[in-house]
């Protein structure tokens, strides 16, 4: 091979290398992509919003979970769960992943999986484990996790479709050796929760009531009724009954003596029939902390409203509730049991509210309210003190 042939071959090789390297440099300049500052990704699955200006109205119009669960398809819910499977397991003995395992999650105390590190937001919401994942809480949380539990580390955007949420909850209910009872469907158009003051998120309370009910988010409303077994304490019920009916005792006495006895009778009636103004004053002496009560009330907010412009939701609005007539909120349809109870217990006095918040089912047998009750007496006093700061118009009087 002479030098001329060798030069041609060498030139061809060099030209090829030049073209390859030049093309690579040019391609990198045209299609360059930056390396992300934070490796990894966040799983966010969002349902299409019903949209636009009607979004706010749709939020308030979501049908009660208790109603939806009557026909919810658990098999369809298994399909919905595929969106959760990247971060959660649902089988018995399943390990925690990015999120805690969800076996037996319905009615389980919130933030209670011992080997999972929960966010501070979730721990605060659980109130030290006294709040359960009842149906109502699951329904609200799955719709908008970050809005329902501020500070949660949950990256899921939420399921906006009520039916999809109900199907998912129906599926999660089956992931248990002893599935939680389904809530009782609310009466036609009536908001399930009839409690004047309910704390949907509170769990069962061993001391004040035998109700086992956290799982019923419905507890907050009649919606979740099924799960809160009315193992009501007879004591609170009788106490409230005796108190409200005490005035009847003097009635049999002769007319003349009746007048002289009036002061005593009136005193006995102070709790059952005292004027609206008196009750709030009593609340102030309950040693309740309105600020602390406001935090407890956040669990009631899914079904009740207070403040200016408050309207009935799943439960009645609670403006001026302390001292208000029982089962008398305008525009709200109460259950027959609570209406009948109001005939002999006319006023939401501090004593009545305390008995009711301690054990709704025991205080008013037959009520659709499935809320198990509040476990801590101080929480009851605090929430009553908070409610007492609102008058009938929703204006806050102070504290």
Q: Considering DSSP H and I runs of 4 or more, what fraction of the residues is helical?
A: 25-40%
Question: What is the number of domains?
Answer: 2
Number of helices: 17
CATH homologous superfamily caption of the largest domain: Cytochrome c-like domain
Beta-strand percentage range: under 5%
Oligomer kind: single chain
Count of extended strands? 0
The name of the CATH architecture of the largest domain is: Orthogonal Bundle
Main beta sheet: none
Notes on the protein architecture:
The chain is mostly helical and 399 residues long. The protein folds into two domains: 59-186, Cytochrome Bc1 Complex, Chain D, domain 2, CATH 1.10.760; 226-387, Cytochrome Bc1 Complex, Chain D, domain 2 (Orthogonal Bundle), CATH 1.10.760. Helix content is 40%, strand content 0%. The protein has helices at residues 3-30, 55-60, 65-69, 74-81, 120-126, 135-143, 145-148, 162-174, 234-245, 255-268, 270-273, 278-284, 290-297, 336-344, 350-358, 360-363, 377-387. The N and C termini lie far apart (104 Å). Residues 47-59 and 191-284 have low confidence and may be disordered.
């Amino acid at each position: 091979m002479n030098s001329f042939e060798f030069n041609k071959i060498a030139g061809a090789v060099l030209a090829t290398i030049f073209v390859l390297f030049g093309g690579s440099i040019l391609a990198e300049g045209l299609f360059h992509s930056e390396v992300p500052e934070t490796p990894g990704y966040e799983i966010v699955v969002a349902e299409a919003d019903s949209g636009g200006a009607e979004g706010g109205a749709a939020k308030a119009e979501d049908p009660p979970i208790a109603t939806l669960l009557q026909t919810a398809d658990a098999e369809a819910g298994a399909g919905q769960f595929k969106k959760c499977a990247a971060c959660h397991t649902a089988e018995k003995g399943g390990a925690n992943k990015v999120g805690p395992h969800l076996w037996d999650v319905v009615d389980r105390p919130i933030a209670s999986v011992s080997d999972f590190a929960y966010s501070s937001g979730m721990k605060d919401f659980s109130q030290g484990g006294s709040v359960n994942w009842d149906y109502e809480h699951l329904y609200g949380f799955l719709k908008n996790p970050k809005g329902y539990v501020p500070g949660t580390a949950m990256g899921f955007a939420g399921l906006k479709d009520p039916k999809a949420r109900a199907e998912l909850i129906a599926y999660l209910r089956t992931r248990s050796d002893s599935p939680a009872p389904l809530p009782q469907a609310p009466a036609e158009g009536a908001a399930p929760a009839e409690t004047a003051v309910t704390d949907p998120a509170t769990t069962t309370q061993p001391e004040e009531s035998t109700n086992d009910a956290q799982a019923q988010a419905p507890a907050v409303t009649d919606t979740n009724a099924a799960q809160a077994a009315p193992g009501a304490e007879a004591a609170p019920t009788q106490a409230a009954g005796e108190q409200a009916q005490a005035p009847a005792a003097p009635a049999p006495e002769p007319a003349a003596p009746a007048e002289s006895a009036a002061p005593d009778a009136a005193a006995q009636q102070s709790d059952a029939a005292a004027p609206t103004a008196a009750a709030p004053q009593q609340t102030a002496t309950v040693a309740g902390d309105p600020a602390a009560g406001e935090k407890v009330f956040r669990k009631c907010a899914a079904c009740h409203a207070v403040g200016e412009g408050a309207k009935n939701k799943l439960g009645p609005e609670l403006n001026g509730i302390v001292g208000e007539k029982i089962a008398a909120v305008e525009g709200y349809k109460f259950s027959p049991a609570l209406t009948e109870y109001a005939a002999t217990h006319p006023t939401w006095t501090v004593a009545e509210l305390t008995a009711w918040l301690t054990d709704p089912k025991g205080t008013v047998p037959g009520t659709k309210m499935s809320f198990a009750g509040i476990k801590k007496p101080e929480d009851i006093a605090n929430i009553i003190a908070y409610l007492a700061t609102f008058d009938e118009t929703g204006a806050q009087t102070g504290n």
